[in-house]
Amino acid sequence: MAAKPRARKRLPRHYHLIGIGGTAMASLAGLLKAAGHKVTGSDENVYPPMSTGLDEMGISYSQGYGPENLVPRPDIVVVGNAISRGNTELEAVLNDKHHYTSAAATIKEEFIRGRHSLAVAGTHGKTTTTSLLAWALEAAGLNPSFLIGGVAENFGTSFRLTDSKYFVIEADEYDTAYFDKGPKMWHYLPDTAIVNNIEFDHADIYRDEEAYKFAFARFVNLIPENGVLIAGWESPIMRELASKSFAPVEWFTYGSEEAPPAGVHNWHARDVKFTEAGTTFRAFRSDEEWGAVDTPLAGAFNVRNVLAVIAAAESVGADRDGVREGLRTFLSVKRRMEVRGEVRGVAVIDDFAHHPTAVRETINAIRQKYAGRRIVAVFEPRSYTAQRREFQGEYVNAFESADEIILAGLFHPERYEAGTAIDPAEMVRQWKGGGKPAQHLPDADAIVKELGPRLKERDVVLVMSNGGFGGIHQKLLDALS
């Protein structure tokens, strides 16, 4: 049974969240409410499921921004990272000298300080790994609190507050607030830190790879000597940064041609088998076998995620049988290789992948899981990275394992010039030149109209986007019906 964290003697406060309708802010609102605070908020448009969730928690919020939302005067105003100067409510906060802070700083002071922080960082795989770690510790009887950037299906929620000493958190590298442009992960006081991989992303806020690398260098530098860094060996940048860690390093690897040097702790998998039901393997820490693993997760990248979770669970002394059961019964995360439905033998899968590496690894995982089936990859270039021309070559290569490719239109083409945006027509020409069927269609409706009638039994449609993509998943399923 996990020890309880040091008691907090704070009186209940009134927190007001500007931008409460965002996923992270709504989850923070729920945590604050669970801690006994009064919580109010405001946002421009609050729709289901966020509005429904806030209503169910008994949290009142205003539709629209304005000074009137600050009456009665809250004790603390939390400014969401989507809120910028010129917002009428924010201007009133500044004019009237309200006590204001960021979501990440609030999480640190209210929920992490005094607990053991298990923080999951890296360019790819954070949400799945964080959810898996929380569930593995739950199955091991440690009853962790957690905050995740997606809905963990085992829990049916993205957050939970308990009396456990352990807090599991997804450590995002995106910026904190308009007044704090450092990444959120710098606030999370990591004791056990997982960094899956580091690869340049978020070109909208990081000027180049060096700036992005610095964010993780500082995160690694926050881990205390009595903590542990669990690091992905396949990432060259991670190897560089880990060498400067004051905390001991536990490596994890799968599929690397170059193994970690002798004498370092190296988590790895042997006898790996992929099937439609999931993945099995034997987990080792260097030459010592940890045990057999059976997980419904698919793909090489998820073997790495599982190894990282095992290493983190070992670092806090979690019961191995409980951890194994958590790995076996994990239900994944919404929008991470989520099977939205199967009609007439055609599977429609939803995934959040938007970075070229995530796209490549997701397609490869689907290939491993659905061996022998035709894979149609449908991609919406929606994120800033996905629409930038400097990543175009990587995207062309990322779709190599797909049998057919459909590329949707850019999310906001007016934001780019010919020299800065990807060129869909050129990408299609390159794919076709390599003998791969490919086309560029403007939107979800056009894709469903063209693709739906020719899908056949055993086809797998993998839809990748970090947005709603015009409801394409349900439209495809409806068309198949």
Descriptors:
single chain, 481 residues, alpha/beta, Rossmann fold, UDP-N-acetylmuramoyl-L-alanine:D-glutamate ligase, Protein-Tyrosine Phosphatase, Chain A, 3 domains, 10-stranded mixed β-sheet, 6-stranded mixed β-sheet, 15 helices, disordered N terminus
Ordered list of secondary-structure elements with their pairings:
Blueprint: E1 14-18, H1 23-34, E2 38-43, H2 50-56, E3 60-63, E4 76-79, H3 88-95, E5 100-102, H4 103-112, E6 116-121, H5 126-139, E7 145-152, E8 157-160, E9 166-170, E10 175-177, E11 180-183, E12 192-195, H6 209-221, E13 228-232, H7 236-242, E14 249-253, E15 265-275, E16 278-285, E17 288-295, H8 300-315, H9 320-328, E18 338-343, E19 346-351, H10 356-369, E20 375-379, H11 384-387, H12 392-398, E21 404-407, H13 424-433, E22 438-440, H14 444-451, E23 460-464, H15 472-480
Helix pairs in contact: 1-4, 5-8, 5-9, 10-12, 14-15
Characterise the protein shown here.
- This protein is an alpha/beta fold.
- It has 15 helices and 23 strands.
- The protein has a 10-stranded mixed sheet with strand order 8-7-9-6-12-13-14-15-16-17, sandwiched between helices.
- Helix 5 (126-139) packs across helix 8 and helix 10 (356-369) packs parallel to helix 12.
- The longest helix has 16 residues, at 300-315.
